[in-house]
Specification:
By secondary structure, this protein is mainly alpha-helical. The chain is 68% helix and 3% strand. The protein folds into 3 domains: 53 residues, Multidrug-efflux Transporter Regulator, Chain: A, Domain 2; 53 residues; 28 residues, no CATH class. The protein is built from 7 helices and 2 strands, in the order ααββααααα. Strand 1 and strand 2 form a beta hairpin. Strands 1-2 form a two-stranded antiparallel ribbon. Helix 4 runs antiparallel to helix 5.
């Protein structure tokens, strides 16, 4: 099949398919004498797997590692389980970070109740006075 048919079947764009090929996530297609890419059922299966992983918010590196585990480990799914466990851990960390962000935003929103001039807005005062504090936070995360 040509790239357009693969895109239709997999519900993605030809550009996405080309990108996944370039990134090494999808095996390169064979070429016809007219230099058209030709794909087969294994491309469809692999592309569905990639897209499902992306819907689970896996990074390209995580997808690449999962594909490598599938291709190289044979019958054991233990490496796959480990990769998914690691992703679950990353998701949990991000949820904690987002909850912290939400808490800070809610506290910030409490600084201004009602319509005021920008000069007297508690949110603006808080945002402009937080520069040093945010630098300290960044430094503590970095070092």
């Amino acid at each position: 099949m040509k790239i357009g048919e693969l895109a239709r079947i997999s519900k993605c764009t030809p550009d996405t398919i080309r990108f996944y090929e370039k990134e090494g996530l999808l095996q390169h297609a064979e070429r016809t004498e007219a230099n058209y890419r030709t794909y087969n059922a294994s491309h469809v299966e692999r592309l569905r797997l990639i897209r499902n992983c992306r819907e689970l918010d896996m990074t390209h590196d995580e997808v690449r590692a999962l594909l490598r585990a599938i291709d190289e480990t044979g019958d054991s799914c233990q490496p796959i389980n480990s990769l998914v466990d690691e992703h679950i851990h990353h998701v949990a960390e991000r949820i904690d970070e987002l909850i912290g962000l939400q808490t800070r935003l809610l506290a910030l929103r409490e600084k201004c109740q009602g319509e005021q001039l920008v000069d007297t807005c508690g949110i603006m005062h808080e945002l402009t006075s937080k520069e040093a504090a945010s630098r300290k936070t960044k430094k503590s995360h970095l070092g």
